[in-house]
Amino acid sequence: MDREVIDLGWGYTARPIPLESYREACARLEGWIFGGNWLYAFDPPAKAPPPLGEDFTWGLYHGTELIGWSHAHQRDERTVYMADTGILPEHQGRGLYTRLLPAVLQAFRTAGYTLVQSHHRATNNRVIVPKLRAGFLVQGLNLYEGGLNVALTLSLDPAYQEAQHVRSGFRAPEAQGARGEAARRLGLRPPGTQAPAPVPQVKMPASPGPEEDLGSGYTLHPVGYELYLDVYRQLEHSAYSSVSFDWPAAPRLEDPAGRRYAWLIGHQGQVAGWQLSRQWDRRTAYMVNTALLPAHRGQGLYSRLLPVVLRALQAKGYDLVRSHHHATNNAVLIPKLRAGFFMQGLQVDEHGVMAVLVHSFAPEYQEAMHLRSGLHRPQGRSGRRLGLTCPEEA
Questions:
Q1: Are 289 and 244 in contact (CB under 8 A)?
Q2: Looking at residue 304, what is its pLDDT?
Q3: Of 121, 138, 162, which residue is a domain's last?
Q4: What CATH number does the domain containing 288 carry?
Q5: What backbone torsions phi and psi does residue 141 show, to the nearest 5 degrees?
Q6: Do 63 and 127 have their domain in common?
Q7: pLDDT given at position 116
Q8: Do both 216 and 352 map to the same domain?
Q9: What pLDDT shows up at residue 351?
Q10: Residue 108 falls inside a structural domain
């Protein structure tokens, strides 16, 4: 298939190249680009590789210099797999990958594919975040010869994309539009469409502690747990569209004892949202519940709230902060990953399919997670903390 040169700005272009040229470039440059990764060294393969099918291969150029590549190939009758993108280190950090991605996805769409898949080391937020912003969804974690990978899938079919939200429990199926089509394709009978109930207005109570300015007229107020719980009960149904398991009876046991930390978000004298965290174990705080009412979303408020809460939890003596989110809730996953959280698991519980994120205040622990995922090679003190020593250090 003929593909045009893609202008990536600032003197960068992506140009179609033959598969053989891509393989030659890999042999010449991949050590420079990926040399810091940690791989298992297999013996030479005994079998020939399967045929690739249709391939999409671009060389990335700065002027006339080849500085990287993007290679994808057909996986099945619906799916194209983004197998390999590499950029020389001196050209990284310039938004090149983010600018390349829309043009590559358009090429897949034009070619007739329904799904786009890729795998990335689970701590490689520099690649995972642009993928999530482009609409990819987290669909799994796998341990392979290169470490721990997160599996991402983008659907070029809106109904399938919506079906994944239904699967994860992030959204309920609806009768009309794309969600109605998703429900039909899942064999579900969606509920009838009804107008959403008006959002109650809850006045901000007097705060027992100093407020924190979140910008644009928003403030953050520390409050007691009982006050938080009263507000939560009034506004819960206005804040969430997710679907949790409907337990047939109230819990029979008390919540486990532990420290709780609650805040309310205020705007013009009204409650705009909240945040609740609690102690998870002797080192870890758990961000249980953060919500913004619909009128206050899409303004970067969550991204401004996060560092304030993280600083408060660090000041309380915690080493780690964990949180769980619906696996398709990119609106929360992206700011969490940008704030330094790492993807550390997937679990299925009463709320749906949840991504487990963990943030560490200790750089040594963050580096240990890079080693676990295979993004970095073990060396020095960080490797020794995991009982890993490279031959050159022995």
A1: no
A2: 97
A3: 162
A4: 3.40.630.30
A5: -125, 140
A6: yes
A7: 98
A8: yes
A9: 95
A10: yes
Six token digits for residue 191: 């509920």
How long is the chain?
A: 394
Q: How far is residue 183's CA from residue 181's CA, in Å, rounded to a whole number?
A: 5
**Average pLDDT per consecutive 10 residues, the chain (394 residues; last block may be shorter):** 82 97 96 93 92 94 98 96 97 96 96 97 97 97 95 96 94 72 84 73 83 95 95 94 91 88 96 97 96 96 97 98 98 97 96 97 96 92 83 62
Which residues constitute the domain of residue 15? 6-39+48-162
Among 129, 111, 110, 112, CA closest to 120: 129
CB 377 within 8 A of CB 368: no
Task: Kindly list the strands in the beta sheet with 218-223, ordered across the sheet, starting from the edge strand earlier in the chain.
Answer: 212-215, 218-223, 260-267, 270-279, 284-292, 320-326, 352-360, 342-349
How many domains are contained in the chain? 2
C-alpha distances (whole Å) from 127 to each of 96, 130, 152, 279, 334 are 11, 6, 11, 31, 11
Q: Are residues 234 and 344 in the same domain?
A: yes
> 189 in a domain, yes or no?
no
Q: What SS3 string covers the chain? A: CCCCCEEEECCEEEEECCHHHHHHHHHHHHHHHHCCCCCCCCCCCCCCCCCCCCEEEEEEEECCEEEEEEEEEECCCCEEEEEEEEECHHHCCCCHHHHHHHHHHHHHHHHCCCEEEEEEECCCHHHHHHHHHCCCEEEEEEEECCEEEEEEEEECCHHHHHHHHHHHCCCCCCCCHHHHHHHHHCCCCCCCCCCCCCCCCCECCCCCCCCEEEECCEEEEEECHHHHHHHHHHHHHHHCCCCCCCCCCCCCCCCCCCCEEEEEEEECCEEEEEEEEEECCCCEEEEEEEEECHHHCCCCHHHHHHHHHHHHHHHCCCCEEEEEEECCCHHHHHHHHHCCCEEEEEEEECCEEEEEEEEECCHHHHHHHHHHHCCCCCCHHHHHHCCCCCHHHC
Instruction: Among 162, 183, 203, give the residue marking a domain's end.
Output: 162
pLDDT number for residue 17: 97
Amino acid at residue number 349: D
Beta pairing partners, 58: 16, 70
